[in-house]
Amino acid sequence: MTDHPEKHGFRTRLSHAGRAGKRVHGFVNPPLLRGSTVLYPTMKDRVALAAQRGAHVLTYGLGGSETHWALADMIAEIEGGSHSFIVGSGLAAVTVPLLAFLKAGDHCLMPDSVYGPARNFATGMLARFGVETSFYRPEIGEAELASLLRPNTTVVYTESPGSHTFEMQDIPALARAAHAHGAKVLMDNTWGLHVFQPFAHGVDVSIQALTKYAGGHSDLLIGSVTVADEADWKRLHAGAAGLGQYASPDDCWLCLRGLRTLAVRLEAQMRAGIAVAEWLRDRDEVAEVLHPALPGARGHEIWKRDFTGACSLFGVVFQPEFAPEATHAMAEALELFGIGASWGGYESLVLPTTGFITRTAGGEDFPGPLMRVHVGLENVADLIADLEQGLAVLRGWRG
Predict the structure, then answer these.
(1) Strands (DSSP E) along 209-323, which ranges?
(2) Residues of each domain in the chain carrying CATH 3.90.1150.10
(3) Do the beta carbons of residue 142 and residue 173 sit within 8 Å?
(4) Nearest CA-CA partner of 316 in 271, 341, 283
(5) I need a labelling partner for 287 at 20 to 30 A (CA). Which of 116, 152, 181, 245 fits?
C-alpha cells in the first residue's frame, strides 16, 4: 500500500491498493493462494487464532486468505465502507445479507423494479422461512415509505436505478424513514459502483455483483457485501460464515486484476453509453430512453444530486407501433451487440425485456416494447452504425 492513500485519486488507489508496495523484492501482483487445511505450530496458536473470528487471520480455507482479503479491502475502500465479505456470485451478495438481517416473522420492503432473482428469492425461500415481503413503487418518497412500514419491518431493500426500467430512488429520504423506524437499509449498488457512495447517503449494507464492472471481462462470477458499522459487520460475517459462503480464490484474483483498470473502463464506458443513449433518443423509432444521466430523463435530478457518474447500462422504450417481436428481430440483426442478460463487461449487449419483467405494485406502464442496452468498449461510431442497421430491421416489422 502507498502512504497517505486519502491524498490520492481513485485511479491511483486502484493501482496500488491490495499490494505489498513498491519497496519489495517480488512480483507486482499479490499471489494467488489456494487452500483448505491450515496448519498450526502449537495448540496454543490454534486456540489464539481461532478466537480471532472475522479478522484477517488464516484459520481454515473458508475463512479466506490474503487473496480474498486484498479484494475485500479494495471493495470496502471503493464503496466507502469499513468491511466487505466476498461471496461466490452477485445473487449470493443479495441473498446472504437478506438472510443475515431477517428472521421468521419479519417483514421486508422491496422496490417493484428489483432484480428479478432477488424478487424470486423473497417470494420463494424467504416466504418459506416465514418472512413476508411487500413490493413498493420505487419512486415513492419518505412519507409514503413510512406509511408502508409495519411494526415487524426490519429491512428496507433498495436498488437505484432499478433493473430494466431504471427508476431512480431517493435513497437518503428512504433511509431517513427506515432508520426512524429502526429498519436496516440494504441496497443493490451494482450500477453505482464508485459513482454512488452508499454509506454517505444512509445505506447500511451495500451489495455488489462484482461479476459486472469490477471483473470487467465477462469471465467470472463473484459478489461482495459491504458495511460501515462494526455491529452490522459482526451480523453479516456471522450470517455469511454460517451459510458457508466462500468465493474461489481464482475468481478473487481475477477480480483484483479487473479492478486495476476499473476507473478507466468506467469513464470510457460512461461516455460511450451517454453518446449512444443520446443518439437513440433522437431516433423516430424510440419513444424514450431510460438513462438517468441524460438531462430531462426520468430520475435525472436525483442522479445529478447523488451520483458522480454513471455506468453504461440503460433502457430504450420503442414506439407503440412496434410489437415485442420486432425488437427480437432487431436484436438478432445486430452484429456487434450480443444478446445477453449480463452487463459490465468489455462487450456490448442488448436484451429485449417486454414480457420478462414482473411488476405488482402498480408501476408506470410504458407505451411500447422495452430493450436493455449495455455499451462496451467498442468504437462508438461502430456501435451506432450497428444500431442503425438494426433499426432498419425494426422498421421492417412496423404494423
Answers:
(1) 223-227, 286-290, 313-318
(2) 262-395
(3) yes
(4) 283
(5) 116
**Architecture in CATH for domain 8-259:** 3-Layer(aba) Sandwich (3.40)
Fold of the domain spanning 262-395 = Aspartate Aminotransferase, domain 1 (3.90.1150)
C-alpha cell belonging to residue 56 = 484477517
Q: What is the pLDDT along the chain (399 residues), one digit of tens a residue?
A: 444 456 789 888 888 887 777 777 778 888 899 999 999 999 999 888 878 776 788 888 998 999 999 999 999 999 999 999 999 999 999 999 999 999 999 999 999 999 999 999 999 999 999 999 999 999 999 999 999 999 999 999 999 999 899 999 999 999 999 999 999 999 999 999 999 999 999 999 999 999 999 999 999 999 999 999 999 999 999 999 999 999 999 999 999 999 999 999 999 999 999 999 999 999 999 999 999 999 999 999 999 999 999 999 999 999 999 999 999 999 999 999 999 999 999 999 999 999 888 889 876 679 999 999 999 999 999 999 999 999 999 999 875
Residues of the chain with CATH 3.40.640.10: 8-259
